[in-house]
């Protein structure tokens, strides 16, 4: 089982602010993912990475960006937050050929 | 048509009874199938996965896969109030990215 951490857990911020959601895992997993989930709705993949310096956009269009400079770290950045970005953001990781994804606790974002 | 479909529920189950959850998927090339449990306000946690047609049992949980009919189900035996949660079905097409397609989930409510 992966140890995967997300900070902050909750964030309330004003429109136009730049924010970075942190995600770290300690298991050395090569693949990492960011999902967006609204209440009662399915998870939507917004970014993924299969290793250092590799990132791809997911199935749901997002105005966020990600980076993968270190294996254990996969931050997500919103350059200018808007109320439409209000959601829960979930980070996950998986190892090698294993497809099981392990999730962090999530960040609940509210943009006013 | 969504790629992974589940009845949203809520599915009301008396304590001690069997809860039966269904999931259908559209991609015939799907290889791996996962069930996650998500408590309200929390992140998904893996219950079990199944790759081959047939049944797979893990404690009170049984996953059933029928690739010809493109469905996967989850049975929860001896349902407990602590089983009250939303159950997410996830499907992988087996590509090297390890991406999963998630259903919107079925809410289960176990009544004492």
Coarse morphology of chain B: globular
- Record field, number of beta strands of chain B: 11
Report low-confidence residues of chain B grouped into runs of 5 or more: none
> What would you report as the Rg of chain A, rounded to the nearest angstrom?
13 Å
Overall geometry of chain A:
globular
Binned, the helix content of chain A reads under 10%
Please report which band the strand proportion of chain B falls in: under 5%, 5-15%, 15-25%, 25-35%, 35-45% or over 45%. Answer: over 45%
Q: Total number of β-strand segments of chain A?
A: 11
Number of helices of chain B: 0
**Quaternary organisation:** heterodimer
Termini gap of chain B: 36 Å
Number of helices of chain A: 0
Percent in helix of chain B: under 10%
Class derived from helix and strand content of chain B: mainly beta
> Would you list the SSEs of chain A in sequence order as H and E?
EEEEEEEEEEE
Which structural class is indicated by helix and strand composition of chain A?
mainly beta
Explain what the structure shows.
The complex is a heterodimer of chains A (112) and B (112). In chain A, a hairpin with a 2-residue loop joins strand 5 and strand 6. Chain A starts with a strand and ends with a strand. Chain A is mainly β. Chain A has no helices and 11 strands. With 112 residues, chain B is an all-beta fold. Chain B has strands spanning 4-6, 11-14, 19-25, 32-38, 45-50, 54-58, 61-66, 71-76, 85-92, 100-102, 106-111. The interface between A and B is medium-sized, with 22 and 23 residues.
Short description:
The complex is a heterodimer of chains A (112) and B (112). With 112 residues, chain A is an all-beta fold. In chain A, 0% of the residues lie in helices and 48% in strands.
Write the layout of secondary structure elements.
The complex is a heterodimer of chains A (112) and B (112).
Chain A: E1 4-7, E2 10-13, E3 19-25, E4 31-37, E5 44-51, E6 54-57, E7 65-66, E8 76-78, E9 87-94, E10 102-103, E11 107-111
Parallel strand pairs in A: 2-11
Antiparallel strand pairs in A: 1-3, 3-8, 4-5, 4-9, 5-6, 7-8, 9-10, 9-11
Chain B: E1 4-6, E2 11-14, E3 19-25, E4 32-38, E5 45-50, E6 54-58, E7 61-66, E8 71-76, E9 85-92, E10 100-102, E11 106-111
Parallel strand pairs in B: 2-11
Antiparallel strand pairs in B: 1-3, 3-8, 4-5, 4-9, 6-7, 7-8, 9-10, 9-11
């Amino acid at each position: 089982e992966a140890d995967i951490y997300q900070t902050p857990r909750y964030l309330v911020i004003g429109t136009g602010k730049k924010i970075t959601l942190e995600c770290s895992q300690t298991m050395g997993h090569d693949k990492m993912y960011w999902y967006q989930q609204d209440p009662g709705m399915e998870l939507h993949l917004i970014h993924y990475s299969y290793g250092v310096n590799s990132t791809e956009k997911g199935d749901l269009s997002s105005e966020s960006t990600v980076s993968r400079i270190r294996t254990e770290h996969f931050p997500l950045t919103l350059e200018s937050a808007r109320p439409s970005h209000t959601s829960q953001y979930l980070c996950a990781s998986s190892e090698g050929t294993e497809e099981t994804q392990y999730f962090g606790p999530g960040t609940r974002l509210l943009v006013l | 048509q969504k790629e992974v479909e589940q009845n949203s529920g809520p599915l009301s189950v008396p304590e001690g009874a069997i809860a039966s959850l269904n999931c259908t998927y559209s991609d015939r090339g799907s290889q791996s199938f996962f069930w996650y449990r998500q408590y309200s306000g929390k992140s998904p946690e893996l219950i079990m996965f199944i790759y081959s047609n047939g049944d797979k049992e893990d404690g009170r949980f049984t996953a059933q896969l029928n690739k010809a009919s493109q469905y996967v189900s989850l049975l929860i035996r001896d349902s407990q109030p602590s089983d009250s949660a939303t159950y997410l079905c996830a499907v992988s097409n087996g590509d090297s990215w390890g991406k999963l397609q998630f259903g919107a989930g079925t809410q289960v409510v176990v009544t004492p």
